[in-house]
Amino acid sequence: MRNPPVNSLSLEFLTELLISLEKLENDKTFHGIIITSDCPGIFSAGLDLTEMCGRDPEHYAEYWKAVQEMWLRFYLSNLVVIAAINGVSPAGGCLLSLTCDYRVLANNPKYAIGLNETLLGIVAPFWFKDTLVNTIGHRSAERALQLGLLFPPAEALRVGVVDQVVPEDQVQSTARLVMAQWLDIPDHARQLTKTLMRKPTADRLLTERDADIQNFVRFICKDSIQKSLHAYLEKLKQKKG
Ligand SMILES: CCC/C=C/C(=O)SCCNC(=O)CCNC(=O)[C@H](O)C(C)(C)COP(=O)([O-])OP(=O)([O-])OC[C@H]1O[C@@H](n2cnc3c(N)ncnc32)[C@H](O)[C@@H]1OP(=O)([O-])[O-]
Questions:
Q1: Is the residue at 219 inside a domain?
Q2: CB of residue 45 inside a 6 A radius of ligand 1
């Protein structure tokens, strides 16, 4: 991923990601992809806050549809998808990595990962929650989501948000090693098993997609939510200045 400075998942970047995924899926010589970041120290800052602040309802609806599409397409991809997480990975960045089949995180205490939405005064929707529950179980997810926990590497491994923590200079080579193991499995059996495991979760969103968009638009348009997001963006800018 190369969307400096922080790989935020803007509408444009999400569209690019989806086009890239589709191209790779359509090319039958590809069987797996490794998602990693070109922005030093940052895997992805998550959803682009400027897409969710001070815009009109039509924009929010269009943006949310793209976020849903990213989740559905990556979560259900027939390819083996591995996240080589070489930086901090909050909220939507964590969600993207949770769509992968395997997560390798660099062992750097700054590289926290988690769904921290509550810290911004917003609520992770049910399909974010479902993805986390499927990964770390109900109790850990309940605690992580309510407290907006961002797990440093050792804790992320302990709770199961990531599958492996390795020294920073070994993230890419480890991801390639893991990829080789996954590609050794007969592909159609692996693909069908992935679908079996994931389809019920994806179907929940597929059957409620429009209602989910409407909920998001209603929620994000609230004055109180807009104020929270503006204040959070302001805090990020001040931190910099
Ligand atoms: C229902 C909805 C569910 C929501 C899900 C989400 O994902 S919500 C998202 C939850 N995400 C988070 O809570 C993460 C928020 N971000 C961070 O915590 C930090 O930026 C960092 C740790 C990722 C990088 O720290 P660092 O010191 O290396 O970098 P820096 O902090 O100096 O930022 C550089 C520039 O990027 C800007 N910008 C940053 N993030 C975003 C963004 N998401 N979007 C847009 N812009 C963003 C920042 O304002 C600044 O702009 P400026 O002043 O140049 O115009």
A1: yes
A2: yes
